[in-house]
Amino acid sequence: MAKKGPKKGAKTRAAKKKGSTTGDDLALRELLRVPGGKPVDLAAHDARQTPAGPRDKRAGRAAMTDLAAPLADLQERLWAASTAGDRRRVLLVLQGMDTSGKGGTVKHAIGLFNPSGCRIRAFKAPTPKELGHPFLWRIKKALPHAGELGIFDRSHYEDVLIARVRALAPAAEIERRYDEINRFEKALADDGVTIVKCFLHISYDEQRDRLLKRLDRPDKHWKFNVSDIDERALWPAYQQAYELALERCSTPHAPWYLVPADRKWYRNWAVSRLLLEHLSELDPRYPEADFDVAEARRRLLEK
User: Fold this and answer.
1) Domain count, the chain
2) d(C-alpha 210, C-alpha 254), whole Å
3) Listed residue (141, 167, 169) closest to 155, CA to CA
4) Under 8 Å between Cβ of 271 and 259
5) What is the chain's percent helix, strand, coil content, to nearest 5?
6) Does residue 258 lie in a domain region?
7) What are the CA-CA distances from residue 114 to residues 36, 89, 165, 222, 279 (Å)?
8) Which end of the chain is more exposed for a tag (fewer CB within 10 A), N or C?
């Protein structure tokens, strides 16, 4: 059985001293959830806002530290439960414009977990072999196994995002993919996969500043691609493509969460907090011993 955490009142008081709220009085996923089925206007969402939780960078870092222990505990319990046949697992999907922080989120948020229980996959442009298969083929091969936390840096949504903006497939085919994605995610949910889809919402000006910083630092030049400049000209088209994906593919079994990402510290905390809320709801349990504990202890003491 998992160890009991601090008393509710004490936890809340400690958090308030650090300038942040906790799950005792906040369900972040309810605040960030995209309703689905309704038009989405990304321009109406401030990418610098901090709708709940820590209010500044210092508090955000402290809040991240507070999340480490409960996240590690829940991950261990999820893995332990899988050894007894529990098929449940978690899939974190990270999407967003270039420089929105998909890699940074993996580094800072997923860094709170034991890497041996994580399955991380960054999806690049499909290879010739992958192009010879249906678009979900490579996604299915990268799914987490029982007890694991899977992390997708980009995902199957590229096939209704860049594919739409760049006309990489016929329009009718792209239209069909939304329903195919919904059916795919419903099948995953029915099979025990908790899907946490985070759209990292960055502003146009913030993206420019981050690209400039990459140019200013020689150790970041490897992350810069000259094509990023040309892609900025397509910003409106990408925003529209994301709005359609959020509207059509935010479902009860796999909702989208719109995470303000201009403030990196808040983005990292929000994604970590969303994972904590979902893992806490799963409430995985350590399996009971399938042997006589007292007898094992007696035998061991005799040696």
Assistant:
1) 1
2) 30
3) 141
4) yes
5) 55, 10, 35
6) yes
7) 33, 15, 37, 28, 15
8) C
CB 184 within 8 A of CB 156: yes
CATH of the domain at 250: 3.40.50.300
Instruction: Domain of residue 225: give its range.
Output: 22-284
CA distance 211 to 60: 24
Amino acid at 242: Y
9 assigned to some structural domain: no
For 141, what's the count of Cα atoms within 13 Å in the CB-facing half-sphere?
9
Helix extents (H) in the chain: 8-17, 28-32, 57-82, 102-108, 128-131, 137-141, 162-165, 171-190, 204-216, 227-232, 235-249, 264-282, 293-302
CB within 8 A of 210, min separation 6: which ones?
Answer: 99, 202
Q: Does the predicted TM-score (pTM) go above 0.85?
A: yes
Tokens representing 107 are: 């580094």
Task: Evaluate whether residue 72 is within a structural domain.
Answer: yes
Quick check: 160 pLDDT over 60?
A: yes
Measured distance CA(26)–CA(273) in Å, rounded: 10
Report helix angle 264-282 to 57-82, nearest 10: 30
The model's pLDDT over 77-124, given as tens digits with 9 standing for 90+, comes to 999 999 999 999 999 999 999 999 999 999 998 889 999 999 999 999
Alpha carbon 239 to its chain's center: 20
Q: CB count, 10 Å around CB of 20?
A: 22
The secondary structure of residue 33, as a DSSP letter, is B
Percent of the chain whose predicted confidence (pLDDT) is above 90: 86
